[in-house]
Design a protein that fits this description.
The chain is of the alpha/beta class and about 280 residues long. It contains five helices and twelve strands. It has a four-stranded mixed sheet with strand order 3-4-6-5, covered by helices on one side. The protein has a four-stranded mixed sheet with strand order 7-10-11-12. It has a two-stranded antiparallel ribbon with strand order 1-2. It starts with a strand and ends with a strand.
């Protein structure tokens, strides 16, 4: 069953109040996968402290700090598309702490395709291609490039991502069975990883990777994939990888890094280390 916990209702066109839904079991995961409600893409306005960027194929909200120089953050949302209210809240919060923040829409905005995507997967793939990005924080990350989810061609999906117009090598997910939780399609896909190592994200090219996951994530095995990223970094002579893993049942799901409530620090803190657990 789907067990929604409503704080407030997210609204189109402004930061507005938020809506938070927790998916406690298989039924909720299936509903999230199928998305039968077909929500509108939300494009929040940047407000007084930000500005809208819409040029050269870039659609984003930008929140600059007053200082001429300082650290910047590229903030990506998840499979909701557009620029959601939670992303804008986080951007405003980061700006208040001295960071200039750019939060782009990578699908769903005017002129962009509307499809499913994964923000943490995107963040890692962008970071490995841009050495000028000194750190990346990925919530509920993937260790591989996955096939895309294309309802118009579900039998032979393409890769989720392209680089310079070419699709990235991707790993196929397993067969979807409605009686299983949605994470099984990814768990089954990972069984074939030894034959498709070229689909792995090259985390060894990053400088400071921080991964946040929930041990009870049923949408995909984010903690297992986080540990695989850490193992690969060690194998390839890459950086030390920090994993923050939430264990409490209430906070250890797929949304552990974007919870709608204030939470204690994760009970298990895996510090910077190079060995897999």
């Amino acid at each position: 069953m789907l067990h929604p916990e409503w704080d407030e209702l997210e609204t189109q066109g402004g930061i507005g109040p938020r809506r938070c839904i927790r998916f406690d079991d298989r039924g909720g995961a299936v509903v999230w996968w199928l998305k039968p409600w077909a929500p509108d893409i939300v494009l929040t306005v940047p407000g007084e402290t930000g500005e809208r960027v819409d040029e050269g194929g870039l659609f984003a909200n930008y929140f600059p700090v007053d200082a001429k120089r300082g650290p910047g953050v590229l903030l990506l949302g998840g499979s909701e598309g557009g620029i959601g209210a939670d992303v804008t809240r986080r951007a405003i919060d980061l700006r208040s702490k001295g960071f200039s923040v750019l939060s782009p829409s990578y699908f769903g905005a005017p002129g962009q395709l509307a499809s499913l995507s994964k923000g943490a997967e995107a963040a890692l793939l962008v970071a490995v291609r841009h050495p000028e990005l000194r750190a990346v924080v990925a919530g509920a990350p993937s260790s591989v490039v996955w096939d895309g989810i294309d309802w118009s061609n579900p039998i032979n999906p393409d890769s989720s991502w392209t680089s310079e117009g070419m699709p990235l090598v991707s790993l196929a997910y397993g067969l979807f069975r409605p009686w299983n939780h949605i994470g099984r399609v990814y768990e089954d896909g990972l069984k074939n990883l030894d034959q498709h190592r070229d689909s792995e994200i090259q985390i060894e090219r990053l400088i400071v990777p921080v991964l946040v996951c929930g041990e009870a994530d049923t949408l995909w095995p984010s903690c297992r994939m986080s540990r695989r990223l850490r193992s690969r970094a060690a194998e390839e002579g890459g950086p030390r990888v920090r994993i923050l893993a939430y264990e409490r049942a209430r906070t250890a799901g797929h949304l552990s890094s974007t919870s709608c409530e204030r939470e204690p620090a994760p009970r298990k803190l895996r510090p910077c280390c190079s060995s897999a657990s």
